[in-house]
Amino acid sequence: MGEPIRIANCSGFFGDRRSGAREMVEGGPIDVLTGDWLAELTMWILARTREKRPGGGYARTFVSQMEDVMGACLERGIKVVSNAGGLDPDGCADAVAEAAARLGLSPRIAYVRGDDLMPRLDALVAEGRLRTFEGDEPIADPGRFRTANAYLGCWGIVDALSRGADIVVTGRVTDAAVVCGPAAWHHGWRRDDWDALAGAVVAGHLIECSSQVTGGNYAFFEEVPGLSHPGFPFAEVAADGSCVIGKHAGTGGEVSIGTVTSQLLYEIAGPAYHGPDVTARFDTIRLESLERDRVRVFGARGEPPPETLKVCMNRLGGYRNDMRVGLAGLDVEAKARVVAEAFWRACPYGPEDYERVTTRLSRTDKIDPETNDEAIAVWHVAVKDVDPKKTGRAFSDAVTELALASIPGFFPIGGGPAEARPFGVYEPARIDAGLVSQEVVLLGGESHAVESVAPRGTVTIVPAKGPDVARPTGPTRRAPIGRVVGARSGDKGGNANLGVFVRDDAAWAWLDDFLTTDRLAALLPEVAAFEVERFAFPALRSLNFVIHGLLEEGVAASTRQDAQAKSLGEWLRARIVDVPVALLTRS
């Protein structure tokens, strides 16, 4: 059994803390520096950027961070693996090489490409090779799409590291691949070492969102020290795939059973976590607190992955615009009706002329308000259409014209954009893995292909058992459910996921019985109109709910105030329910 490999994270998204790379390299010993720069939304943003500026298809902030730490990484033998290549891993690798030359350094740089299907899209669609992700219908009309990138796995990264690369840049790989790749390379895993690979995927899932596993966005945030600047995490991945999640000494935040459980639930669905290299079974994971800021994650079992790869496709959905009006004081609902009627009289287009109209009245006002802000409710109207003229000034001017001819106290909030804004629609698809090879290129050297097809086989999985504890009885008290329950929520395309967890066995016995899908819909009425799936993870004392379609066509198109459902969990935690007094006393 070889020594564990310590893989650190320095970025959870395109825009994360600029100092993350330096903090992880200088803060303590690490073997590999990784980061995640990509998301479904990011691919759309990069496509739009590249249309406006040649060379804008990758994360330039990664290159800047490399200038900060490249010398130290080479001196200490720290490998770097990043998906910052985005839509242009070639260009990103060249930019890193240029930065190295300015610094007088000579790292071996490799990049992995092959994920970009746009050059082949017409042929793939014509041959029926691309299918919708959930419905298995053929993708049509390839001219609609701005991006089409297959989610690649870890084996291109393994190959690049095996050939001596110091820095590996990829395009669209899975978030966990930048961790799984170095682990598989270090330990010499085979492609069918399912359990080890599953464990590394779990490790990658835990640290890919940077400080979310070290206390960031944690439900019980008041327990977290130094939350104003939490440290970034690392995963010490052992030869069997188990890992220890930790952070550098002296940094803010914490690593605990709670923070790890919370991140395990982030943006997942059911127990089977599908990827291109392995299907990791989250219902087999177990956690153990070793010491302060060290949590062992073990027991993960793996199965062969699907025979297809997921494809991130983004298309222009049309144009959108929205306006908000403040409604002050008394008779808020009557004022909202007057504003709505006056707006549609002033607008040259009626609601039936738009592809989609969304109107909301947000009752943010209070009775007997002590401040001006407490007297304000908000009327919000949003429109979408393929015609930018209908969603431009013709729409926004209709609200502006009401300023002196409408309700008392009328004022616009934020002014609203005068011009229509293009929005993207995320449309996931599937393609046979055999049709997408990974090409590994060493700058100044050779290039060759690595197959994306995984071995087949059958594995029997037994889920980890949860605690065998009776449901608490006795008196209850009306209290926010969040006094006992933690939550973490997020987006997956147009779906929202809501993970809910508790921190002791008695609370789990109560939560599993109490929080049904019907109860969730009653507590969160906006959810009731959508299909909801519920999954239980007893060994983690957790539930996960997937709300299909809540976010409309996805984050770039959603008209919800919180387009990524980040606040959904905190909304649930604020709801008042009957909680056993014994649990409230314990919490």
Largest sheet: 11 strands, mixed
> How many helix segments?
16
What distance lies between the first and last C-alpha atoms, to the nearest angstrom? 41 Å
Whole-angstrom Rg: 25 Å
Q: What would the principal axes of the Cα set say about the shape?
A: globular
List the domain count as a whole number.
3
Residues in β-strands, percent: 25-35%
Category from helices, strands and their pairing: alpha+beta
> In what order do the strands lie side by side in the largest sheet?
12-13-9-8-1-2-3-7-4-21-22
Average of per-residue pLDDT values: 96
Give a count of the beta strands, DSSP E runs of length 2 or more: 28
Unreliable residue stretches: none
The helix content, as a percent range, equals 25-40%
Describe the structure.
There is one protein chain. By secondary structure, the chain is α+β, with helices and mostly antiparallel strands. It folds into three domains: 5-306 and 428-450, no CATH class; 317-424, Alpha-Beta Plaits (2-Layer Sandwich); 476-586, no CATH class. Helix content is 27%, strand content 26%. The strands form five sheets. The protein has an eleven-stranded mixed sheet with strand order 12-13-9-8-1-2-3-7-4-21-22, sandwiched between helices. Strands 5, 6, 15, 16, 17, 18, 19 and 20 form an eight-stranded antiparallel sheet that branches. Strand 10 (272-273) and strand 11 form a beta hairpin. Helix 1 packs parallel to helix 3.
